[in-house]
Amino acid sequence: MTRILMISDAHLLIHAKRFKDGCFIPFEGRVSIENFRKVVDQILTEKPDVIIIAGDMFDQLEKSGDFVTDAEAAKYWPNIQDELRKLINGTKYGVYALKGNHDSSSILIELENSLGSNFHFVRNKEEKVGDFRIYFMESNYRRGYYEIPEEKIPSKGDILIMHETLPVLGIPGLKNEIIRELSKRFNFIFNGHMHSYDCGLFGSTNLYSLPALIPSHKLKCNYMIEYHWPGDLDVPKKKDSPFGYVILEGNKTRFKKYTPVQKIIHVNINGNNPNDVIEGINEVYSKLLENEIRPELLWVWVSAKGVTFKDTIRKETNKYQKIRTLDIFVERTDEPKKSIELKGIDKIMDINELENKVLNSLQINEKELAQDLFDEIFTNENLSKKVDVLRIALFEKSLQLSAQRSGIIEEHMNEFLSKIKQYWVLNKK
């Protein structure tokens, strides 16, 4: 009986950053490699016949949105390839990899060439592995609700491996009718991308959402400890690690958790105004420092009600440099659309005033893109750049954000931006 072990969404290169020191790896990157080494050792104790990667293991973009340079990736590859070789050598059929929306085809092809015949990069193709016929469907990921053309939907098989957005918790994604159709055609469906383990979604008992193998900058609301403010900070909510992998043997599946090196913490602040939120952040973060011997291993994401701008929270969390705050989410109340007349404004607005005016003038479904534009483009770092450099950054980020919401494949957009970089250089001469 073939034992299949499935892993997904480790995002091993997302922590890469540009440093002058050719040997330096940032702390988050070192923790990621340590986690990967530990989870590989745990996986090998399961004695799987084959390892299946369901996407987003090897990022082509840094957290900042810049491409991972060859020089930065080279710092990680020896460790990553060593662990992949362990997986290959510890299994009967080796490793099969599907490309996720954050992966690069060229990286997967390079791994296939360098690791030998038992690392397989498969796209839109069925493979016979042991007792199973497994179809690897390349990601059709788009922002919003989307479909898969009939000609791209695989006909049938034992197992389908895919990397799509499932429409849960109000998140738009692959349309339900497509999911139901796929569930009819396959005995099992295993989906990456969602970073959380679940089964039986949409009434399809054969549909499984795979967990993130290890934590990364893309936490996607995963946590192990949760603090609520106001509330009893001495008794936070605790739960088992949501990270790990899934094993299929015969007709039985099992989720096996992996406990990471760091602690993943959710800080939930329920304030009525910015002063409440600031007070809550400082109380919770002070408690974290008080309780932990190694605060650098606290990876935190914050959700808050009572403020409009993430910067209000970021200014406070930045005071606690030992704690790593990875994500901030602001819960906003729906506001009616307002008519704003911008012609003839006779004063200079600061960026917060401008952001507030823009957000208040939009309907709720338009605010997400506008907020992303402010968060990712109008940063202190960007605004301090020279005009020519800032113009390029604004152009590229605007295109990337718009493309995500227009259904343009990320890989195609990145190829386009790479091609036009030469023209920016020519214009600067």
Keywords:
single chain; 429 residues; alpha/beta; Purple Acid Phosphatase, chain A, domain 2; six-stranded mixed sheet; globular
Helical amount = 25-40%
What proportion of the residues form beta strands (DSSP E)?
A: 15-25%
For the biggest β-sheet, the strand order reads 4-3-2-1-13-14
User: Secondary-structure element order, as H and E?
Assistant: EHEHEHEEEEHEEEEEEEEHEHEHHHHH
**What's the CATH class of the domain at 3-214 and 243-257, please?**
Alpha Beta
In CATH, the topology of the domain at 3-214 and 243-257 is named Purple Acid Phosphatase, chain A, domain 2
CATH architecture of the domain at 3-214 and 243-257: 4-Layer Sandwich
Oligomer: single chain
Low-confidence stretches: 335-348
What's the CATH H-level homologous superfamily of the domain at 3-214 and 243-257?
Metallo-dependent phosphatases
Main sheet: strands, sense, barrel:
6 strands, mixed
The averaged pLDDT comes out at 85
* Strand count: 17
Number of helices: 11
Class derived from helix and strand content: alpha/beta
